[in-house]
Design brief:
The complex is a heterodimer of chains A (about 80) and B (about 350). In chain A, about 30% of the residues are buried. By secondary structure, chain A is mainly β. Chain B is about 40% helix and about 15% strand. Chain B has six helices and 19 strands. In chain B, a hairpin with a 4-residue loop joins strand 1 and strand 2. In chain B, helix 3 runs parallel beside helix 5. The C terminus of chain B is likely disordered. The chains are: A mainly beta (about 80), B alpha+beta (about 350). At the A-B interface, strand 2 and strand 5 of A face helix 3, strand 9, helix 4 and helix 5 of B.
Chain lengths: ~80, ~350
């Protein structure tokens, strides 16, 4: 089924993608954010916080935004 | 608290209009890129044809030269293809609809408790909670987005970071956060996702990303490291000193670090390099009260280097003159006087 996935980590990827039916938010995070910790991210489905075991639905909007991002100084 | 629906719709339409305008600019740029790519392709193909013709006519030197030119053209073609490929990704990003923007504004109320919009200046603002990093209190910040600057090539110029309860770095009032200078954030790793969020109208994602940067301390790249945040600068070199760490010049009362403070070699009073003088004879430093002047040449000199009120140079000269006079008397020479001419 199709969802809109917004990854605000790195390049800020935002695009539609296909996921297997009954995919949970936790599973999607593990697939897309391998090696990262879920507690370091704001995870929203349709702009709402959801539990980890929330099962994604067709056309859901999923966003994952890191809560810690390193700034810098201007060159 | 829910905003009035009409205000929300007006803001959403303003944002949507800006996003669409930026998209039109991007399409124009993409068309220009496409033309450059076509030109590079045509040039490469032409050179290859000419090289083939030259080879068929056994003009080997000409064929070799044309192949070298074709190789250069191939590099240019490769560059144009990569540039076009990068642009193609940006063009495929889904843009937010007015409905999406309305929903973003609703999400912002949940994430930030409230947002403010000034339709006159076309700015949209949210306020963070108080921020404290590594034990240093920095206060709350307002993230103010200029809606007319969405999708600019430099995303960092589209918004300002305003300290609401400033605790700036010591001696640097413009640095209110390790990564904020003069209300401008250096977004570091967040720069690309911030640009992408603004370009596609994902306003709430933008504010969340900026907040994430404000809540994170990167010790390796800060305008002022938090270790040096509290304190006052040395008046000479600017080095930040912790409270109570510096030394006070007894004469100008400026605060100085231990590298810039000195002392009078006579009275031991502390002084800065501007207030102390250097004795030209011994090259030690003395305060104005402990320096004196040579009675002959009037040059400043420390008391220890004066002999009978004379600096070493004048004293030596005097000694030499005195010796010359004594040698002259011992030899019995009669002083010669010039003959007197009749008037």
């Amino acid at each position: 089924m199709r969802i809109l996935f917004i990854n605000n980590d790195g390049s800020g990827f935002a695009d539609h993608m296909e996921v297997e039916p009954n995919t949970t938010v936790d599973k999607l995070f593990t697939q897309q954010m391998a090696g990262r910790k879920a507690e370091d991210y704001l995870i929203r489905v349709n702009r709402q916080p959801v539990p980890r075991d929330y099962v994604l639905q067709e056309n859901d909007r999923v966003s994952m935004t890191p809560t810690k991002i390193e700034g810098a100084v201007a060159a | 608290m829910k905003k009035q629906q009409r205000t929300v719709f007006r803001i959403a339409n303003l944002i949507y209009a800006q996003v669409r305008a930026q998209e039109a600019t991007r399409i124009g740029n993409a068309t220009a890129e496409q033309r450059r790519l076509n030109s590079a392709l045509d040039r490469y193909a032409a050179l290859c044809r000419q090289a083939a013709k030259a080879h068929a006519r056994k003009w080997l030197a000409a064929a070799k030269r044309l192949l070298e030119q074709a190789n250069t053209a191939l590099e240019d073609l490769h560059y144009e293809i990569e540039a076009r490929r990068r642009q193609r990704h940006d063009e495929s990003l889904p843009l937010a609809s007015p409905g999406d923007v309305v929903r973003d504004l609703e999400q912002m109320e949940a994430e930030f408790h409230q947002w403010q919009c000034d339709e006159g200046t076309a700015t949209l603002s949210v306020r963070t909670d108080d921020i404290e990093l590594s034990g240093v209190y920095l206060g709350a910040f307002t993230i103010q987005l200029n809606l007319r600057q969405l999708g600019q090539s430099d995303p960092q110029s589209a918004f300002s970071i305003i300290a609401e309860d400033p605790n700036p770095a010591g001696g640097r009032d413009g640095v209110t956060h390790p990564h904020v200078k003069d209300e401008r954030l250096c977004a570091g790793e967040a720069l690309v996702p911030i640009g992408s969020a603004l370009q596609t109208g994902r306003i709430c994602d933008f504010f969340l990303l900026v907040r994430s940067v404000l809540q994170t301390y990167n010790a390796h790249s800060a305008y002022v490291p938090l270790d040096n945040w509290n304190g006052s600068p040395c008046q000479d070199c600017g080095h930040l000193m912790d409270d109570g760490e510096g030394f006070c010049c007894e004469y100008c009362e400026n605060n100085l670090c231990d590298s810039c403070i000195s002392y009078c070699r006579n009275c031991n009073n502390a002084g800065c390099l501007s207030c102390l003088e250097t004795c030209p004879a011994c090259e030690d430093r003395f305060c104005p009260n402990c320096m004196t002047t040579c009675s002959e040449c009037k040059q400043s000199c420390c008391g220890g280097c004066l002999t009978d009120g004379l600096c070493p140079t004048c004293h030596e000269e005097k000694e030499n003159n005195h010796e010359s006079d004594e040698h002259g008397n011992e030899s019995g020479a009669v002083p010669v006087t010039a003959p007197q001419h009749a008037a």
